[in-house]
């Protein structure tokens, strides 16, 4: 990038990045899309890789609800209540927002689901419905929970069990219990997790496309990184690249120098320079499904210590991948990585210098989902599960290295969404 285009880039990026790393953290959750790159910018010629993405169908969402209902019946749950968020979208394709005005769905074990929403939102909600559902509306001076209580009574569930999605707010649970005092309120985590944790071929295909876009963005942006750039400069480039490639909701951040020793970064400004570590952690969304990929490199030439640490982290990824076999408790992956790191002189456990966080997390519509590669996680890995593989080594006051690539479990073993880089000299290969 020449000096003129770099100055222009910094100027146009200021509004989005204002507020530093805090703004970065919010970018995947409703931030405006980054501005299109100017003519002559290497990002301007990137293709729309998401153009032909095959989105989740109404038929697949019906299958999800059928699976949910079957699990509810096994657990003795009569209905599941879900507020706006990814779980609502997962089961109904209704994209809504959290508000003090209640909009929610009740999915019963038998019969049509029921939405409750303010009267003035009814028309908008009905536009979003792709299947038969009751819609109960309430005026501003009415109690939506009384409507829910009456609906449960009409359905013969006045003394039934209503399970709440884990994102349901406390006041909703409290008011529901007050409006339907004979109803047993419990958690819907078992049935919702059972559905969401196992991804279909269509879900995996969308996650693969999101990962392909993030990798293409990394390979495009890496040669554009220059001495003197700050983390906001790198963030802007990655956001623009992923958006230009057709992704939604680009997110993530970059940490430079000593800030890379903190897994989620520092607020202290640092800048790219010779011999300095740069840790990049970015992702995006395609059709509602996320990617999450981290890369670490040294600007210029790495010293022997940096090479050794990078190689240890890469070996940790290999150990995690080899351990993540179907039927293996997910926690064993974390145990195996820490065992290797301790033999290399790091830790023990979560102590620094070493690995201060879990080895990986579930991923899907949300960046972080159940289950995790963390000690004591006893859930056996099963085909269709998708998780990040992201061991790191962090050396306070110096730098940190993290490599992150996500995997999906098959009957034959784990498969990569993105191939880890071969060496610190080829960090984006």
TrEMBL record:
<protein>
    <submittedName>
        <fullName>Aminopeptidase P family protein</fullName>
    </submittedName>
</protein>
<feature type="domain" description="Peptidase M24">
    <location>
        <begin position="206"/>
        <end position="411"/>
    </location>
</feature>
<keyword id="KW-0732">Signal</keyword>
<comment type="similarity">
    <text>Belongs to the peptidase M24B family.</text>
</comment>
<feature type="domain" description="Creatinase N-terminal">
    <location>
        <begin position="64"/>
        <end position="198"/>
    </location>
</feature>
<dbReference type="InterPro" id="IPR006311">
    <property type="entry name" value="TAT_signal"/>
</dbReference>
<dbReference type="InterPro" id="IPR029149">
    <property type="entry name" value="Creatin/AminoP/Spt16_N"/>
</dbReference>
<keyword id="KW-0031">Aminopeptidase</keyword>
<dbReference type="Pfam" id="PF00557">
    <property type="entry name" value="Peptidase_M24"/>
</dbReference>
<dbReference type="InterPro" id="IPR001131">
    <property type="entry name" value="Peptidase_M24B_aminopep-P_CS"/>
</dbReference>
<dbReference type="GO" id="GO:0046872">
    <property type="term" value="F:metal ion binding"/>
</dbReference>
<dbReference type="InterPro" id="IPR036005">
    <property type="entry name" value="Creatinase/aminopeptidase-like"/>
</dbReference>
<keyword id="KW-0479">Metal-binding</keyword>
<feature type="signal peptide">
    <location>
        <begin position="1"/>
        <end position="27"/>
    </location>
</feature>
<keyword id="KW-0378">Hydrolase</keyword>
<dbReference type="InterPro" id="IPR000994">
    <property type="entry name" value="Pept_M24"/>
</dbReference>
<keyword id="KW-0482">Metalloprotease</keyword>
<dbReference type="GO" id="GO:0006508">
    <property type="term" value="P:proteolysis"/>
</dbReference>
<keyword id="KW-0645">Protease</keyword>
<dbReference type="InterPro" id="IPR000587">
    <property type="entry name" value="Creatinase_N"/>
</dbReference>
<dbReference type="Pfam" id="PF01321">
    <property type="entry name" value="Creatinase_N"/>
</dbReference>
<dbReference type="GO" id="GO:0008237">
    <property type="term" value="F:metallopeptidase activity"/>
</dbReference>
<dbReference type="GO" id="GO:0004177">
    <property type="term" value="F:aminopeptidase activity"/>
</dbReference>
<dbReference type="InterPro" id="IPR050659">
    <property type="entry name" value="Peptidase_M24B"/>
</dbReference>
């Amino acid at each position: 990038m020449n000096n003129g285009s770099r100055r222009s880039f910094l100027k146009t990026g200021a509004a989005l990045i204002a507020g530093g790393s805090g703004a970065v953290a919010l970018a995947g959750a409703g931030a405006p899309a980054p501005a299109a790159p100017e003519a002559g910018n290497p990002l301007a010629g990137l293709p729309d890789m998401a153009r032909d993405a095959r989105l989740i169908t109404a038929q697949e969402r019906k299958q999800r609800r059928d699976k949910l209902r079957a699990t509810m019946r096994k657990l003795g749950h009569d209905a599941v209540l879900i507020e706006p968020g990814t779980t609502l979208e997962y089961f109904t394709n209704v994209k809504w927002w959290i508000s003090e005005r209640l909009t929610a769905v009740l999915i019963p074990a038998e019969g049509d689901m029921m939405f409750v929403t303010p009267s003035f939102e009814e028309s908008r909600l009905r536009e979003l419905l792709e299947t038969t559902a009751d819609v109960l509306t309430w005026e501003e001076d009415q109690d939506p929970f009384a409507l829910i209580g009456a609906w449960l009574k009409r359905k013969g569930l006045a003394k039934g069990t209503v399970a709440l999605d884990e994102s349901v707010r406390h006041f909703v649970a409290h008011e529901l219990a007050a409006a339907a005092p004979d109803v047993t309120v419990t958690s819907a985590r078992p049935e919702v997790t059972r559905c969401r944790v196992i991804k279909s071929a269509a879900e995996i295909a969308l996650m693969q496309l999101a990962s392909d876009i993030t990798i293409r963005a990394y390979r495009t942006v890496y040669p554009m990184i220059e001495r003197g750039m700050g983390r906001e400069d790198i963030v802007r480039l990655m956001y623009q690249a992923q958006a230009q490639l057709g992704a939604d909701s680009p997110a993530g951040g970059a940490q430079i120098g000593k800030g890379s020793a903190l897994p989620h970064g520092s607020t202290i400004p640092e800048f790219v320079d010779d011999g300095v570590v740069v840790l990049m952690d970015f992702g995006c969304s395609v059709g509602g499904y996320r990617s999450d990929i981290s890369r670490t490199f040294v600007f210029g030439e790495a010293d022997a210590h940096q090479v050794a640490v990078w190689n240890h982290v890469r070996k940790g990824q290999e150990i995690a991948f080899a351990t993540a076999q179907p039927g293996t408790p997910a926690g064993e992956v974390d145990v195996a990585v820490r065992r290797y790191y301790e033999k290399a002189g790091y830790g023990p456990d979560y102590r620094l210098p070493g690995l201060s966080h879990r080895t990986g997390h579930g991923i899907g519509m949300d960046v972080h989902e159940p289950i995790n590669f963390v000690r004591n996680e006893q859930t056996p890995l099963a085909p269709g599960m998708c998780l990040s593989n992201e061991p790191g080594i962090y050396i306070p006051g110096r730098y940190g290295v993290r490599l992150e690539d996500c995997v999906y479990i098959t009957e034959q073993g784990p498969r990569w969404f993105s191939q880890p880089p071969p060496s610190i000299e080829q960090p984006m290969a």
